[in-house]
Amino acid sequence: MKPDPRPLMLSLLLAALLPATATAQSSPAPLHALEQAIETHSGALLLPGSTPGTVTVTPCTGCRPLGVFAGASTTWMLGERAVSYEELRRALQSNSRLPVVLFYRSKDLALTRLVSRAGAAELSR
Q1: How far does CA 37 lie from the centroid of its chain?
Q2: Are 91 and 123 in contact (CB under 8 A)?
Q3: What pLDDT, in 10s, does the model give residues 82-103?
Q4: Total-model pTM
Q5: Tens digits of per-residue pLDDT, 48-58?
Q6: What domains are there in the chain, each with its CATH number?
Q7: Which of these, 38, 59, 47, 27, lies nearest to 90 by C-alpha position?
Q8: I want to staple 96 with a disulfide (CB 3.0 to 4.6 A). Which of 43, 67, 85, 89 is the partner?
Q9: DSSP annotation string for 81-117
């Protein structure tokens, strides 16, 4: 009786695949965060009088304040609508509990956009 070749073939197949699997698992592609985000409320922000300027945010209770640079390329949004800095500033100063998300670049702390989900009802309070 001839020995069954299947166990040998399976061993050879596994031996061929294991180095590729080990290499793939040992060197994953590095992740690079291009942007960071902070979810907070309008009362946790210190806004500049105009732009360019620095927006200071306290990300959490007990956290250190973080300054991010707001320049000409920063986008200001109320809901899904792009607005001027002045309009956004007025809206955020009218209510200290409005939800806000700041997006900034990690490498240079440049504010890319500031978004508040403020609706018309919240702004009229």
Answers
A1: 3
A2: yes
A3: 999 999 999 999 999 999 999 9
A4: 0.69
A5: 999 999 999 98
A6: 35-124 (2.40.50)
A7: 47
A8: 43
A9: EEE-HHHHHHHHHT-TT-EEEEEEETTT-BEEEEEE-
